[in-house]
Design brief:
The complex is a heterodimer of chains A (249) and B (296). Chain A is α/β, with parallel strands linked by helices and 249 residues long. Chain A has nine helices and ten strands. The termini of chain A are far apart. Chain B is elongated. About 2% of the residues of chain B have low confidence. Classes of the chains: A alpha/beta (249), B mainly alpha (296).
Chain lengths: 249, 296
Amino acid sequence: MTQDDAGGTEPALRTDRLGRRYGRVWGLRDCTLDVPAGAVAGLVGPNGAGKTTLLEMIIGLLEPTEGEVSIFGETSRAYHAATLARVGYVAQDHPLYRDFSVADMFHLGRAMNPTWDQGLAQERVDALGIPVKRKVKQLSGGQRAQVSLTMALAKRAPLLVLDEPVSSLDPIARQEFTREVTAVAAETGLTVIISSHVVSELERLCDWLIVLSGGHVQLAGPTDDLIAQHRMGFEQLVMTYLSGEAVTR
Amino acid sequence: MIWVSWRQHRSEAFGCLAVLIGLAIYAILVGTSMRAAFGHDGLTPCLARSQGAGCPTGVTAFMNEFGSEVNIAFWSVALIVPGLIGVLVGAPLIARELEYGTWRLAWSQSVPRARWLAVKLAMVTGGLIVLGAAMTAVITWYRAPMDRLTGHLQHNIYDFEGLVPTAYILCAFGFAVLAGLLIRRSIPAMIAAFIPWLAIRLVVEFVFRPHFMTPLTTSHTQLNCGPPNGCGWGISSVPQITGHIGDWVLSVQRGLITYQPADRFWSFQLIEAGIFVALAAASLGTAIWLLHRRAA
């Protein structure tokens, strides 16, 4: 399944006045966004900006307090199989079962996803040189990140969501992971949403930018257009909007 | 999902199997010698004849050798074992996923979280029922000769036979699963589940069980039991002061004996197992409902 199935005009992701309240505090509010099919969208914001809240609502792991999410035109319903099946997700810190082997993890993926592509999973870890018999706890951080990414890809979902995928990795593993994501996005035309609080690494990766701060969307659009409009570099642009200085502009 | 449940819980299953094998070996060793002694002391014909009242020497010899198998402190401590099994298996079931962050992995696959939990609970509950039934069968087999003298309605015997041991395990398991979801940490969830389990377990045993059914009364004068073993109402009195083996004497006051007759064993077991299974079902149902409804 790719974004072509949806007819091309529908955005890959649309959120409409999306909000989530924790007790009396809003973790995210009034979030309205479109991300077009095939985009690699960077979601930037300081810790506590609401990034994880937004991502969890997108993938159906968290129910919105208000508003809604739709993926390729279909409204998402939190905790429902149909919604969960449409998003591949790599969570922060790449959680995997420590005493499972890589092959066990893939077995789990196959058992829990009707669209699972075992061939894809196998080819990817072979290409990366990760032995499938090895236990997760014996893998390096970089390898774990790759296994997590592989599981998300083998789900064959049209939307891929990566939450802080490189923040726990060393610089070399970071580079490798970023390269891998870029290659996958280019090859498959998959729509990718990738969050980070490290601005520099998103610059190379993203053609779409979303800046989130204080539970609100401060800026969203195609990276090149935003840079041209504001006549400033990527990093400066992000910083300006993160600090809230540019809100009135 | 069945494979996933098995893969995640197989080490617990092997652990339980090891405990069961250990118990079986002990039971075979002691149980065999108990059976031999039972034949030696000529207790079978004596029981048939006189409910044990007519052969005090045989009964005394047997009780002196094996009486500790039913009434030593060990069995009073062993009552916590079903609770320990239940909380050890139950608390990590959800809490471990929350502690290690793997819930984001488990619940973002294409299986909704409530179904993920329901399948796991069905599998693990099934395993615990098999374990409980097997442990009960081993203990019941091992104690069979002793039970012919004591019956199995009294404290420390009743609690390890029939349906209740399995029901105790399930109840502790249900409490622990729910506690794991609410507290989100395995060890505190074990403690938070075990304490109310133990409290309920003891209150049911000592407050409610004696009154599951209206006790019968009888008076001393109807009795036909001679010393040294008869006319007592401790666990090792054969027969009981009521004149029958296995009656559970609740009190003796001014010649009036209040007791539960031995043949109420299965009715009592059904009532008590029903209480604990209902508690287990309520806890597990709440856990599934909460997981279905609320954000983690």
